[in-house]
Automatic annotation (TrEMBL):
GO MF term set: UDP-glucose:hexose-1-phosphate uridylyltransferase activity; zinc ion binding
Cited Pfam families: GalP_UDP_transf
GO terms classed as biological process: galactose catabolic process via UDP-galactose, Leloir pathway
Official protein name in the record: Galactose-1-phosphate uridylyltransferase
The species this protein was found in: Puccinia striiformis
NCBIfam families listed in its UniProt record: galT_1 (TIGR00209)
UniProtKB keywords: Carbohydrate metabolism, Nucleotidyltransferase, Transferase
Source organism, top-level taxon: Eukaryota
A GO cellular-component term linked to this record: cytoplasm
Residues covered by the Galactose-1-phosphate uridyl transferase N-terminal domain: 4-182
Length: 202
């Protein structure tokens, strides 16, 4: 049975009438567990392996899944993804009657986490070329397999946040991959896309 779209529970886009761009809203991530961290100026030394880290091998993550043992790069589907379910929930009648100033659309896709290395204390800059190659291979594998399995994906991007102040909830060196059913207009302005299309059609 297909779900009814609920903007308080489902990822969606909201239209910004001033810029004529769509902005992603991941309201369901309010349910993501917060461990009560408070930012301090102290720089703590990281352990090679942290038994409390969700991303270290063989540890249990916040959602209850176990991170498999891995020797090099490792990726898995994000337990608390910004978007999910490539099947878009149907909009309810009340959604369709909303005023034009508050436009929403369901946003869907797949989100993945790539752990660089089992070592909790090594950034990519501290890895050897042989340890970095599997990370690049993970990028290639995700880029090629996601589009093949999910042809409605329009935008795939790799990005990294570093530090709790920027929203990185885990110090274990990792990054994210988002595969979206639409193109992020804030990352690629609508005018750029229109210019590319006009050039291709000229």
């Amino acid at each position: 049975m297909q779900q009814t779209f609920d903007p308080t529970q489902h990822p969606h886009q909201r239209f910004n009438p001033l810029t004529h761009e769509w902005v992603i809203c991941s309201s369901h991530r309010n349910n993501q567990p917060w461990q009560g961290q408070i930012k301090t100026n102290e720089v703590s030394e990281l352990l090679p392996c942290d038994p409390k880290c969700f991303l270290c091998p063989n540890n249990t993550r916040a959602g209850g899944q176990v991170t498999n043992y891995y020797a090099l790069a490792y990726f898995f589907e994000n337990d608390f993804a910004a978007v999910n379910d490539l099947e878009v929930p149907q909009e309810s009648e009340s959604d369709l009657l909303r005023p034009a100033l508050h436009q929403t659309e369901p946003a869907c896709g797949k989100c993945f986490v790539i752990c660089y290395n089992p070592r909790h204390d090594l950034t990519m800059a501290e890895l050897s070329p042989d340890q970095i190659s599997p990370i690049i291979n993970a990028w290639i594998e995700l880029y090629t397999t996601i589009k093949r399995k999910h042809p409605n994906v329009s935008d795939e991007r790799i990005f990294k946040n570093k530090g709790t102040m920027l929203g990185c909830s885990n110090p274990h060196p990792h990054e994210q991959v988002w595969a979206l059913s639409y193109i992020l207009s804030l990352a690629i302005p609508t005018t750029v896309l229109e210019s590319q299309e006009n050039f291709a059609n000229s």
